[in-house]
Structure formats: C-alpha cells, structure tokens
Amino acid sequence: MDRITGRFTRVEPRRRIRRLVLGLLSDLPRKNCWTIAEWAGDATPDGMHLLNRAKWDADAVRDDLRNYVAEHLHDDQSVLVVDETGEVNWPPA
C-alpha cells in the first residue's frame, strides 16, 4: 500500500484508499461503496468515491501495480487473466 498511497496528494484520500483496497480484498459478499464504507466504519460512502473526487495520478498507480506484479508474481510460465465481470469461468463449458 505504501507504494500507491504516495500518489494521493492529501492525507485523507491516502487513508481512504487503504480502507477501500482492504474492503475490496475482504470477504464481503457484496462489494460496493456502501458495503465497503460500512465495513470500514464510515457512516456514508462519500469517502469511498476516490476515483473521481480525489486528486491522484492514475497512470502512476497503474505503473506501481504493474511493477508490483512483475516483482512478486513473476514466472516465465505464468499468465495473468483479469475478468472484470466477476463471473467464475471454471470449469470451461
């Protein structure tokens, strides 16, 4: 988290991004701004709208994530597949 929190100019978004990411990685059955805010102890989801309200460098965060993956998950035989639908596609049809 230290790698990306510095990409936010103010301390409040830095704290919130940590809670947002931890909420996304949590075992919450449904993940949206409301459920993550409640999980994080916030009364409203207002602070979870970091992507469009906070000042941050999205390209730098993308690069940080890419570098993290390359450093920690590198294997010449591996393939990373990202499916934004959230649907489990296993076993294949």
Q: Can you walk through the features of this model?
A:
With 93 residues, this protein is an all-alpha fold. It has one domain (2-72). Helix content is 49%, strand content 0%. It is built from five helices and no strands. It has helices spanning 2-5, 11-25, 33-40, 50-53, 58-72. Helix 2 crosses helix 3 (33-40). The longest helix is centred in the first third of the chain and has 15 residues, at 11-25. The radius of gyration is 15 Å and the shape is flat. It comes from Saccharopolyspora shandongensis. GO terms for molecular function: endonuclease activity. Pfam families: DDE_5. Keywords: Endonuclease, Hydrolase, Nuclease. Residues 7-87 form the Transposase IS701-like DDE domain.
Provide a compact summary of the structure.
The chain is mainly alpha-helical and 93 residues long.
Keywords for this structure?
93 residues; mainly alpha; 5 helices; flat; DDE superfamily endonuclease; hydrolase; endonuclease; IS701-like_DDE_dom
Order of helices and strands: HHHHH
Report helical residue fraction: 40-55%
Class of secondary structure makeup: mainly alpha
The total count of strands amounts to: 0
Shape: flat
What is the number of helical segments per DSSP (H or I, 4+ residues)? 5
* Percent of sequence in beta strands: under 5%
Report mean pLDDT, rounded to a whole number: 83
The domain count comes to 1
Q: Major β-sheet, in short?
A: none
Poorly predicted regions = none
Based on CA atoms alone, the radius of gyration comes out at 15 Å
**Termini separation:** 37 Å
InterPro entries: IS701-like_DDE_dom
GO molecular function: endonuclease activity
Keywords: Endonuclease, Hydrolase, Nuclease
Protein name: DDE superfamily endonuclease
